[in-house]
Amino acid sequence: MTTSRDLMITALDVAESPPAAGDLSLALAGAELIDLLAAEAIRLEDDRIVPGHPPAMTDRLLDQSAESLVREAPYESVADWLWRRGLGLASAYLSALEAEGQLTRRRRLRLPFGTGRTVLVDSPDRRLANDRWASNEPVLAALATAVGITARDKGDEGTEEAPGVPDDAVETVVVAVNEALLELEAVRQRRSVEQAAFDNVWRGY
Asked: DSSP assignment of 91-146, as one string?
């Protein structure tokens, strides 16, 4: 299992309200970087991603991630990676889970031919991700908190803040994810204001 897959499963399984696809995609891109750091496939020099000689990845999407690294100086910043790699990444992970048979569609009563709601099947991957989430593991908790999945989603009464991340490089990635999410929300708000102003013109205001 990888942090990125655990995050995707957590978002599908325990969140009261699933994160927006764009938010989750950015966080998944960050999770992939953390997985690559753990595999010693990359290192960070300040905020630059310096590729190493990665071992063979057992996860197809993580392997794609490693193959897509910029391998020439001055290398890519963590922020640039999040926006590039994160484009549509949540959909890619969802498709991967579907292809592996990790998802099924729960049909609604009286609608036997309806598509219903997509839910996770019981699987070792799901149980491992749930165990990691229930233990409040710092990295998964930090990324989940960034996209709005908090302790309340597992019924805890405690703080909604994720525990501190011990590794400086991992912390750099988590901070970059949070900054990218703030930037994305600012873009959404600006577009909302622009759309409202456009609508008002057509209403004659």
From this structure: HHHHHHHHHTT-EEEEPPTT-TTS--EEEEPP-HHHHHHHHHHHTT-HHHHHHHHH
> What pLDDT is stored for residue 195 in this prediction?
62
Angstrom distances, CA of residue 101 to CA of 24, 144, 172, 189, 200: 21, 24, 34, 37, 48
Interval 79-98 mean pLDDT? 96
Domain range for residue 11? 3-203
CA–CA distance, 126 with 57 (Å, rounded to integer): 20
92-136 pLDDT, tens digit each? 999 999 999 998 876 544 544 445 567 899 999 999 999 999 999
Specify the pTM: 0.84
CA distance 125 to 102: 9
Structure token digits, residue 2: 């990888």
Structure tokens at 81: 């990676």
